[in-house]
Amino acid sequence: MTQIDEKIEPIFAEVLRRNAGEPEFHQAVREVLESLGRVIAKHPDYANDALIERICEPERQIIFRVPWVDDKGQVQINRGFRVQFNSALGPYKGGIRFHPSVNLGIVKFLGFEQTFKNALTGMPIGGGKGGSDFDPRGRSDGEIMRFCQSFMTELYRHIGEYTDVPAGDIGVGGREIGYLFGQYKRLTNRYEAGVLTGKGLVYGGSRARTEATGYGAVYFVERMLATRKLELAGKRVVVSGAGNVAIYTMEKILAFGGKIVACSDSSGYVSDETGIDLGLVKEIKEVRRQRISEYARRKGTGTHYVEGGSIWDVPCDIAMPSATQNEVTGKDARALVKNNVIAVGEGANMPCTPDAVNIFQNAGVLFAPGKAANAGGVATSALEMQQNASRDSWTFARTEERLATIMRDIHDACAETAEEYGAPGDYVLGANIAGFVRVAEAMRAMGVV
Ligand code: GLU
After folding, report:
1. Percent of the chain scored above 70 by pLDDT?
2. Are residues 263 and 356 in the same domain?
3. Contact predicate 131/103, CB 8 Å
4. Is residue 378 part of a domain?
5. CB of residue 115 inside a 6 A radius of ligand 1
6. Over 70: is that where the pLDDT of 173 sits?
7. How many CB atoms sit inside 10 A of residue 272's CB?
8. 233 with 133, same domain?
9. In terms of domains, do 361 and 260 share one?
10. Is 259 a catalytic residue?
């Protein structure tokens, strides 16, 4: 683990003390603070006025009860969260996650990451995140709708197009955003399209938003490979997950001529030496909402399903972890390095443990951290807000072109910042510093906020 600069160490100690029992939040903060030693060595004034301390403290944290009635008529209770982390650059912006693992620490880690990610996009958006420990698995459409309506019945008073703009994340896709928007509209009697992003195309959504996180991650990796005169074409790629990020990562990799050799879900992974059939994955995951084991059962020859195994054992040139936090451990990283992985691009938020990141970087593997590589999703959300504000609707091509430019700019900002701070090729450092400096500059201009 990299050391934290001795001037910053007490700030981290205070974060640990004040946020006890939140390991993912500690991990996310630590990673950024490790990068800041070089910043204050160059610009000591960034250590003034408790600026770093303020950036580590969310502006507002909301926790609420979400009661709802299931299909059997039983009353169920879940807990809802919205952490409004930082609004220096714009309204709070970030997704909502529905997953049984959600707790305050997870939402804080995501909100903290989101703040720097959003800054990196160059769009006017602050950072926030929300969610619930509600488990959508096995729930009927009616149950999902009633849950979303109850969740919004509290959330609506805290959000707005100029205040806080939620979107999707794990467990929250187009269906859920539709139910949430419908309830917001009823409660406020306003057609405020810009209050949520990831909306359906018929009611103010943006073209390419669904694809944006995955497509963007692939654009980032392609540009990162180009720094070593390499390209995606002909490469073996492993993409973990089979949700929105993974599916559109796979789609873009195929468009660039790469070969997907494995994907997964929380129950196991499937490898396919003939190349994963994305149409079949989409049908199983997006239409039927079934387990990935179904893929091997349907496709048969050449496929292999491993229940509970590690997808990172499958040899590949490029790994794109696109499932969830801490899914790539030190052991997984060692297996990937042993199999000569060239590049790792994080599609999910913080999928590699600190141990894994160190192993990749020490082995000279190109490593793209999530807050840079997966920023295409939220960047396109900002484009959706822009279209809503101007009551316009762009073509797919125009939106994707903006996305590609934004990803190129994020890549270059990370690479140039790493170089400027004496660590060429260190995208973690580059992303953390470039994101931090933008947020810090805005906060400084606003006084003690
Ligand atoms: N949940 C996504 C992320 O982690 C997207 C957020 C958004 O579009 O606001 O960045």
Report:
1. 100
2. yes
3. no
4. no
5. no
6. yes
7. 23
8. no
9. yes
10. no
Query: Where in the sequence is the domain holding 154, given as residue range(s)?
Result: 60-191
| Residue 272 domain flag | yes
Task: Output the pLDDT for position 25.
Answer: 98
CB atoms within 10 A of CB 307: 9
Q: Decide: 168 and 244 in contact? Cβ < 8 Å.
A: yes
Give SS3 for 156.
Answer: helix
**Substitution site in 248, 378, 387, 406 for ligand 1 pocket (most atoms within 8 Å of beta carbon):** 378
Ligand 1 pocket residue status of 90, Cβ below 6 Å: no
- Using an 8 Å Cβ cutoff, are 400 and 341 in contact? no
Average pLDDT, the chain: 97
CATH number at residue 152: 3.40.50.10860
Q: Closest by alpha carbon to 440, among 52, 72, 42?
A: 52
The alpha carbon of 308 and the centre of ligand 1 are apart by a number of angstroms equal to 28
Render pLDDT for 66-124 as a digit per residue (tens, 0 to 9): 999 999 999 999 999 999 999 999 999 999 999 999 999 999 999 999 999 999 999 99
> Residue 1 pLDDT more than 90?
no
* Annotated active-site residue in 93, 108, 117, 129: 129
Question: In which band, very low, low, confident or very high, does the pLDDT at 2 lie, cut at 50, 70 and 90?
Answer: confident
> Does residue 439 fall inside a structural domain?
no
Given CA atoms 376, 379, 381, 386 in this order, what sign does their dihedral have?
negative
Ligand 1 pocket, 378 CB below 6 A? yes
Question: Are residues 26 and 82 part of one domain?
Answer: no
Order of strands across the sheet with 92-98?
Answer: 60-69, 75-86, 127-132, 92-98, 164-167
Residue 392 domain-assigned?
Answer: no
Cβ of 113 closer than 6 Å to ligand 1, yes or no, is no
Q: Mean pLDDT throughout 40-49? A: 95
Q: How many domains does the chain have?
A: 3
Does residue 192's CB lie within 6 angstroms of at least one atom of ligand 1? no
Instruction: State pLDDT tens for residues 46-70.
Output: 999 999 999 999 999 999 999 999 9
Q: Whose CA is nearest to atom 5 of ligand 1?
A: 378
Does the pLDDT value for residue 170 go beyond 70? yes
